[in-house]
């Protein structure tokens, strides 16, 4: 039995199938974690979502920002953007079931040695803190006030964690940490203006995992979201979004020994090329 984690799919279903064949994955024997962003921008969001739903005993996912965007559209809190590729999901007759399934997914998975989120964790959070905050955020999606949550979800403020945050501001910050965060200021404030590669980070910013005195070092933190960062396996973090959507690679890691497997991403190096081909 093997336990794998795979980086952001974003509709790259054919690449997922190729990667599962590459690692010899078998449902009923092996298990799989997905780092979130199952959907959007790639050509087969529907198939990626259906795959995860079809295999509840062997596949688990956390929610990513694109998954939340799909839910926000469903609740009338966001509009379908020009670059989105969500129509096949939104127009599917079983979409209400898919919507409710997505709402029930967690923001964090923890197996005792590895903890997975979509984007990252604040350095001042312990693993116990992170689990509690993830459960709090998940409850907001699953409750009767989900529509209100999505209506207030978007925004970059507040950008600093305080234990006394309450209500909408608290939930928005939690959501941004788990699904959008890449870099922090030197005061551990969230900053969303840098999305480029690690080597070009300005001196006034640092990756969330480079902050000193991280309190969650008793787990290896597995995450995706930051495709420009690429594969990273050091200092207690395992980054797995290697840009499959952009013509990079789709990457899997065996969590027992961190062996890495990958397959080619979407052809042409640009998700829009594959999308145009798929719709003509």
Automatic annotation (TrEMBL):
Organism domain of life: Bacteria
Molecular functions (GO terms): bis(5'-nucleosyl)-tetraphosphatase (symmetrical) activity
Catalytic reaction(s) noted: P(1),P(4)-bis(5'-adenosyl) tetraphosphate + H2O = 2 ADP + 2 H(+)
EC number(s) given by UniProt: 3.6.1.41
InterPro entries: ApaH, Calcineurin-like_PHP, Metallo-depent_PP-like
Keywords: Hydrolase
Pfam families: Metallophos
Domain Calcineurin-like phosphoesterase: 5-122
Recorded family membership: Belongs to the Ap4A hydrolase family.
Functional summary from the UniProt entry: Hydrolyzes diadenosine 5',5'''-P1,P4-tetraphosphate to yield ADP.
Name of the protein in its database record: bis(5'-nucleosyl)-tetraphosphatase (symmetrical)
């Amino acid at each position: 039995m093997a336990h794998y984690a795979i980086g952001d799919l974003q509709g790259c279903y054919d690449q997922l199938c190729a990667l599962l064949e590459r690692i010899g994955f078998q449902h009923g024997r092996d298990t799989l974690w997905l780092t979130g962003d199952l959907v959007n921008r790639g050509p087969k969001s529907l198939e990626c979502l259906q795959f995860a739903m079809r295999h509840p005993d062997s596949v688990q996912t956390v929610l990513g920002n694109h998954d939340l965007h799909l839910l926000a559209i469903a609740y009338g809190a966001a509009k379908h953007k020009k670059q989105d590729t969500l129509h096949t999901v939104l127009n599917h007759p079983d979409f209400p079931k898919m919507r409710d399934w997505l709402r029930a997914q967690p923001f964090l998975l923890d197996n005792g040695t590895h903890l997975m989120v979509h984007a990252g964790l604040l350095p001042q959070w312990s693993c116990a803190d992170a689990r509690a905050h993830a459960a709090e955020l998940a409850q907001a999606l699953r409750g009767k006030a989900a529509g209100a949550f999505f209506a207030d979800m978007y925004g970059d403020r507040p950008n600093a964690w305080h234990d006394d945050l309450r209500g909408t501001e608290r939930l928005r910050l939690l959501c941004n940490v788990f699904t959008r965060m890449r870099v922090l200021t030197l005061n551990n404030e969230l900053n969303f203006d840098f999305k480029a590669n690690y080597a070009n980070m300005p001196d006034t910013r640092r990756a969330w995992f480079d902050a000193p005195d991280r309190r969650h070092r008793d787990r290896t933190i597995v995450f995706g979201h930051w495709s420009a960062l690429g594969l990273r396996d050091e200092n207690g973090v395992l980054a797995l979004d290697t840009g499959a959507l952009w013509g990079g690679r789709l990457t899997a890691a065996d969590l027992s020994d961190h062996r890495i497997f990958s397959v080619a991403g979407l052809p042409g190096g640009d998700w829009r090329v594959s999308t145009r081909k798929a719709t003509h």
